[in-house]
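Run: sequence + threonylcarbamoyladenylate -> complex structure.
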Amino acid sequence: METLHLSAEKQGDIEKAAQILRQGGLVGIPTETVYGLAADALNGPAVAGIFAAKNRPMDNPLIVHISDLSQWEDLVDGVPENARALAAAYWPGPMTIILPKSEKIPDEVSAGLPTVGVRFPSHPVARAIIRESGCPLAAPSGNLSGRPSPTTAACMAEDMDGRIDAIVDGGPCRVGVESTVVTLATCPPRLLRPGGITLEQLKAVLGEVVVDPAVTQPLEEGKEAPSPGMKYKHYAPKAHVMIVKGALADYCRFVNSHNRPGTAALCFAGEEKLLEVPCVTYGSETDAAKQAHDLFEALRRLDEIGAKTVYARSPGQEGVGLAVYNRLIRAAGFEVLEV
Ligand code: TXA
Ligand code: MG
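>> structure
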């Protein structure tokens, strides 16, 4: 299949994308978090195509994107007061709210769960495509399963060219990591995946919020995943990645004394001059938002330079840092070295 390369800047291209979606096709769309692989959420066979294109395990549910709050009511079995308050505070934006689903949601979307995640993105192009198509859009991140999520149209094309109908270029994504996923189907609410809306922001509206242990730790053997996506290896470049925790001087000493062919550093900007191995940077030590913005492209870049072993500087876990840590620790298969 030839993948059409569309541009949000080009007259008529958003309408073209919307038409493909209405006809049951698959389109890569920009959002403020990462690029998504979209299909009409109410068209079961179209949604099944997403799983095939991504090689996604069939038991991993998709989230549904809307461009107007009124679409939400149709997708879930009632909107409780705390959900309404959360939406009023942070939608449109990088947050997915999980609630019991309505019977309109095809099994392909919910992967057999009784719940569905809904997100109202803030990206103007995402919203225009949803509005034009007239359908809520199921969209996971637009990477092949297990790879870092795409934050530019070019990264998405790397994984999806020849596998889907079209990709709409809307420029690089502002946030750079996927949305915060919070479930209100449990009491108290539970953070399943940290993202651009921070834990502190959720607590400001909801009061108590439980952080699922799988946010920072491997799933316990034999325990059922509260979010199926937690089970799978994620965000991994081809290289063997390890997080190296410690002060900058100790990190540099460690990396420089483990300098073998194929070794690379994933460090913060400005630290390259202290390191004797090839370096890829992701933001600065004190700017978690920039780390989030840069992380996935940095992971792809490590593959491009042929890195085999990667020693990564550890992000903090405050604010958006928790989202950065959550992605990096998965890319590292939970391998952390203390130096
Ligand atoms: O920012 C985002 O959320 C991006 C853009 C495209 O909107 N989408 C995205 O989708 O990251 P995906 O499928 O890559 O990640 C959604 C995560 C998965 O880990 C999935 O297991 C979890 O949310 N999830 C979806 N529906 C769920 C449900 N009903 N209950 C628990 N977890 C759910
Ligand atoms: Mg994903």
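>> summary
The chain is about 30% helix and 20% strand. The CA atoms of residues 182 and 191 lie 5 Å apart.
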